[in-house]
Fold:
Amino acid sequence: MLETLSSHAAFGGTQAFYRHESVACGGPMKVSVLLPPQCKEGPRPALYYLAGLTCTEETFVTKAGAQRVAAELGLVLVTCDTSPRSARFVGDDASWDFGQGAGFYLDATEAPWSAVYRMETYVTRELIEAVEATLSIDRTRRGIFGHSMGGHGALSLSLRHPGLYHSVSAFAPICSPSRVPWGEKAFSHYLGSDREAWKAHDTVELLRTRRFPSKVLIDQGLGDKFLSRELSPDLLEEACRASGQDLVLRRHEGYDHSYYFIATFIEDHLRHHARELAPR
Amino acid sequence: MLETLSSHAAFGGTQAFYRHESVACGGPMKVSVLLPPQCKEGPRPALYYLAGLTCTEETFVTKAGAQRVAAELGLVLVTCDTSPRSARFVGDDASWDFGQGAGFYLDATEAPWSAVYRMETYVTRELIEAVEATLSIDRTRRGIFGHSMGGHGALSLSLRHPGLYHSVSAFAPICSPSRVPWGEKAFSHYLGSDREAWKAHDTVELLRTRRFPSKVLIDQGLGDKFLSRELSPDLLEEACRASGQDLVLRRHEGYDHSYYFIATFIEDHLRHHARELAPR
Structure:
């Protein structure tokens, strides 16, 4: 099911890159997986990472420095690509914030995108099935986290699929895509012009009726150039307060939107997930 | 002297990218520097990293995961490029192991390379002067380390410049370039056909008459595809034994030549340098 592209010893475990067929995305998709050393003894919980605009399955693996602590804690790290890559459409590479590298972790309903821009089905069904069928992964405990567009993905998918994920966190997430330029551009193309339909993919809106599976950890840099225009952490904070959702939102002076920010705080996120995913 | 290209908060310190003019290399060169938080209080020792074939000043910064421990230990990390980049010559990009990205950390003596392929002068003089003149760096304690071609650079430059560096280590270094294909190709073009002249840039040969400033740490993966053809750690071990040089050479089952290998063992190298650079 998973075809191995490459495999590297890392921190006593293995950092592997795979390819597999996706029906939802209409062709092969690439996946990276860190298998911690504990997988040799038995299945371990997996933590799914969703990357931001322009990234691939390789970005987090290369830049976040997550393997050390994941190998210590016995967490499998799974990272996928940020859009379908096989089928191509006119305009899908005209800008860096839409189309290729910008799937927004939803199933498009508007042509032509609806044919294969189905990242929600891919992430929540096909990806999980592929790695759980093949690798030493505990099927009862899953975490999800992400950065920026992938933070939106982690937050919204965990709300939209109750019971699927058991721990959630995000770095600089797009908290309310239906209200900001990145989200307006993507949603209008993928979901059409009816803004009511957008709310089902907007974390702040979803929190009116839904709750996360456990306490949520969010880190946000205050030197992030996208903060005021695209990210809306204040709205998330307000929505969590209104619904009684347990949230730890940390604001960090001077930190920007880069993987240097992620690398600085990745250890806290991995320990957060390990705690929330621990057998009770 | 250093023009800032970008700067990112990281682990309480700053990961910065600079450009500066190099006379030796005939034009601007790029440099990356991690300034640990301790630099705000006073000068800290700097550790110079030399990268391998095809890399740039960015590779180590992105992939090695070194910032966390350097920020803890108060070590400045300086990384430069792997060749001059401004002047271009016919054939300098014909292969990945010669010319662009493959300066071998020596001053070429053969035309046309001798005009600007002068990475030894650049690394041991201009780079040090540029960062020490501008940043909060302790001028009395310097370390040097590197990977593959950069491991050759770290080992040979520390032997060729007694007193300049006070601690040394390497990941999968080319220990005896004058005896292996990578070195033969580079040295014959940069230094000419007289193999006697090559010995002055060959760590194993230099060890006949010289010693490192302190104990040397080397890590080598046994799953490294370049090991038997290019790296010769056995010759280094033998030369150190013959000369009474204190060497810790660790061989690691399954690890390859990649930055996953480096990331796995980077913490040990940084702690090695911090120990050797500590005030006595």
